[in-house]
Design goal:
This protein is α+β, with helices and mostly antiparallel strands and about 120 residues long. The strands form two sheets. The protein has a four-stranded antiparallel sheet, with helices on one face. A three-stranded antiparallel sheet has the order 2-1-3. It has two domains: about 50 residues, no CATH class; about 70 residues, no CATH class.
Length: about 120
């Protein structure tokens, strides 16, 4: 069974520490009720689920929305990035909306006009 901190999601193993190593940092928000440990099985039983949405912005550029800190948290996968090794761009503000797709298209067109190796 995978044991998780209910606040930050960090995984740990038994025996459980009094406080998780992330939440022990004074900068980390911890609920007033204090440390709570949970498991993937408990979260599934409580109705927790993750909806994964994938959108192709451009050929070889995909946005994958999977939830996270905020609704709509996503990553962008650029298959040809980093010299063909692939790049993963992460951020909580990337949203799969048509305006974003149009903006990304214009940006890629501008970049590829300047850098022929990106096209």
């Amino acid at each position: 069974m995978t044991i998780l901190c209910a606040t930050c999601g960090v995984e740990t193993a038994a025996p459980l520490p009094e406080t998780c190593r992330i939440c022990a940092d004074e900068r980390q928000w911890v609920p007033l009720h204090g440390q709570i440990w949970t498991s993937v099985e408990e979260q599934l039983a409580d109705g927790m689920h993750i909806d994964v949405v994938e959108l192709e912005l451009l050929p070889g550029v995909r946005l994958i929305r999977f939830g996270g800190h905020f609704p709509g948290a996503a990553v962008i996968v650029w298959e040809r990035g980093s010299g063909g090794q692939g790049s993963l761009l992460a951020g909580d503000t990337m949203q799969p909306k048509q305006a974003i797709a149009r903006s990304a298209q214009r940006h890629i067109e501008w970049v590829t006009g300047v850098h022929d190796d990106l096209g």
